[in-house]
Amino acid sequence: MPLDRRRFLQRGAALLGAAALAPVLAPARAAGPTLAVPVGRPLRILVLGGTRYLGPAVVESALSRGHAVTLFNRGKTAPHLFPGVTRLRGNRYPDRDGGLSALQGGRWDLVIDLCAYYPRLVEASARLLAERTGRYLMVSSISVYRDLKREHSDETAPVLPLAETFEELPDLYENDWKTYGGRKAANEAIVQRVFGERATILRPCSICGGGNNDGSGAYWPARLHRGGRVLLPGDGSDPTQLIDVRDLADFAVLAGERGLAGAYNVVGPAERLTTRDYIAAAGRVVGSRAEVVWKGDFPREMFGLPLVPPYSAVPGFATMSNARARAAGLRFRPLEDTLRSNWLDHRAQRGDAFDFAAAGIGLSAEQEAALLSG
Q1: 367 backbone dihedrals φ, ψ, rounded to 5°
Q2: Is the dihedral of CA 351, 353, 358, 364 positive or negative?
Q3: 3-25 mean pLDDT
């Protein structure tokens, strides 16, 4: 599997399916960190997107804190979610489904942009909403950073340039990994230029937790649950980072409440996490008795495994500074809570089955066996 910067960063991220949220979100939230009750009147929050990926967790967090939420989307992904929430129909593309026209009469305190993928579309929404909202919060990614070989990067580190050419997809799904970071950086610049101090940029790392069903979030729990000898690259001492989808959502709402300006690396956990710690926690969650075998080196076939990229190649992937976000109020659930919500959600939808080949990542059983015997 080819070494791909974006694969390292995003294959561990959750493409948060809307139906996935229901079985696990409410009980897991009660076990997580408690945010202070917001001071002042409830916010009027416009969410661009809101029914997949990070969206449902953001809406749940905002509603649980008493805010009034309006969703703007095409109404095609999980339209059954949040039946009591105000919905506006439209499209980020101006020539489809009425474009952004449904937003022209509204006023909001906060806009949370969850689908900021293409600069011209972000430019259109930012300019339209500049006089209609108090703050514009854009969810970006640590993929924006130019040098992932740099350890302990903070928000001042240089970002990538925008590629000369890239593809725009109508469904606004993440795509074209080689240009993804540059596009996100360009989108950040647009929001900051239009909104100035009223702009908030969140840069998460790999996202995990309930709803992470693109095949990456459940990969290691599923592999450990299958049992036998489980091959892991390295010796287990390499660090890794992830963020619970609910912790990211809570911080997005908190940032809006507190009017936090500028960029924030929303990465976790609070303390250093090694790959050995992560695998051990996943094993406890699924009750695994598998034998874990650490390979020691990184055969090419293992480069794409989620949350275990070769540290020597991309140390920035695993050591991003979260000091600014933590000082601003970012809190973390225990790692096992995150993994458990992910695993319960996976099993609620798929049972014990996990199609490793369909996940498009990791090793086939034959590849793993060959490396174990080599």
Answers
A1: -65, -45
A2: positive
A3: 33
Which uninterrupted H or E stretch holds 223?
Answer: helix 219-226
Tally of structural domains, the chain: 1
What's the distance, Cα to Cα, between the start and end of the chain in Å?
A: 18
Q: Who has greater pLDDT, 5 or 248?
A: 248
Residues paired with 52 in a beta bridge: 17
How many percent of the chain have pLDDT more than 90?
Answer: 60
Q: How far is CA 176 from CA 93, 168, 183, 222, 238, in A?
A: 18, 9, 10, 28, 28
Tell me if residue 5 falls in helix, strand or coil.
helix
Instruction: Say how far apart CA 247 and CA 206 lie, in whole Å.
Output: 12
Asked whether 53 and 21 are in contact (CB, 8 A), the reply is: no
Encode pLDDT of 330-354 as tens digits. 999 999 999 999 888 888 877 777 7
Q: What is the extent of the structural domain holding 256?
A: 5-373
What the block records as the tokens of 144 is 């924006």
Q: For position 208, which CATH number holds?
A: 3.40.50.720
